[in-house]
Write a structure and sequence with these properties.
Aminopeptidase, Alpha-Beta Plaits, Peptidase_M20, 4-stranded antiparallel beta sheet, single chain, alpha+beta
Length: 302
């Protein structure tokens, strides 16, 4: 009976604390709502591709400094990365802010929303634990070039996440369940994201005049097209949580010359590391087979 009473008392205290924290968070968000909305819109109205997010970098840094925080600009050797730290002792909670856009179509991936949600989360947590006297540290990390090479691996290598106990980020996504189990159950906010491996392939052939002596040529464009078609066939045999996609980046431009050069980028995605490595190996075999079938040489990087 005593154990049950203790449990009920602890539950009551926990419920009261949770309610108090929610009130603090609501108050902070309400106070900053207009400024956060302006931050979000400014980033959205000024899209910048990866490694060129200079205005976004400065906008976010200026915003955080205006609220009294010390900001490390160009953090960890990356020109458009930044870091903000708050608190002392206890565990370290990291929030990631992405702010690069897609080439030609702006913030279709919603990175302006990612920045705003991470900034909001950082501010509410930092201010709440300070007001309630709770030990803990909070880190806001600007992670550039997420649509390209990816800033996070570079930041990991530079030690930006050293000592972090939990790393968090929210990503906008369409609100429909495709039935493949990607959403968490019971209304829990979240989406199961798959891991990604990227590599490029360059195909080297031999030029020849397409009208007079095409038989002397080795067609690099044929190789990249062959790989594309065979990857399309492979998709029938992959898991529902796996993805393969690629684009042609470059090829020779003269139509009456057999293309001696072509380049493509490949992305492979899977829910588990083991699956990612296995699928990547299959994709690379197809790339190699395309080169072999057309008589080309192939060079892969990534």
């Amino acid at each position: 009976m005593t154990a049950l009473t203790d449990y009920q008392q602890n539950l009551a205290v926990g419920t009261e604390m949770t309610s108090k924290i929610k009130e603090e968070v609501d108050e902070i968000v309400n106070q900053l709502e207009d400024k956060l909305s302006t931050l979000c819109r400014t980033i959205w109205e000024n899209p910048e591709i990866g490694q060129q997010e200079f205005k976004s970098h400065d906008t976010i840094c200026d915003f955080m400094e205006s609220l009294g925080y010390t900001v490390t600009r160009h953090a960890y050797g990356l020109p458009t990365a930044f870091e903000v730290l708050s608190g002392s002792g206890g565990r370290l909670v990291n929030f990631n802010a992405e702010y690069d856009s897609l080439p030609g179509i702006g913030h279709a991936c919603g990175h302006n929303l990612i920045t705003t949600s991470s900034v909001t989360a950082f501010l509410t947590l930092a201010k709440t634990i300070e007001k309630l006297g709770i030990e803990g540290r909070v880190q806001l990390l600007g992670t550039p070039d997420e649509e390209g090479e990816g800033g996070k691996p570079k930041l990991i290598a530079a030690g930006a996440y050293k000592g972090v106990d939990v790393s968090l980020m929210a990503h906008p996504f369409e609100g429909c369940d495709s039935g493949d189990g990607n959403y968490y159950p019971d209304g829990i906010a979240g989406f199961r994201m798959v891991g990604r491996q990227k590599f490029t392939a360059e195909y080297f052939g031999k030029p020849a005049h397409a009208g007079s002596n095409p038989w002397d040529g080795v067609n690099a464009l044929d190789a990249v097209v062959s790989a594309y078609n065979n990857l399309a066939l492979l998709r029938q045999q992959i898991q529902s949580t796996e993805r393969i996609h690629n684009v042609f980046i470059e090829s020779d431009k003269v139509v009456n010359i057999i293309p001696a050069y072509a380049k493509a980028t490949y992305h492979v995605r899977s829910a588990k590391l083991r699956g990612l490595r296995a699928l990547e190996a299959k994709v690379k075999k197809i790339v190699e087979a395309a080169a072999l079938a057309t008589g080309c040489e192939v060079k892969m990087e990534g």
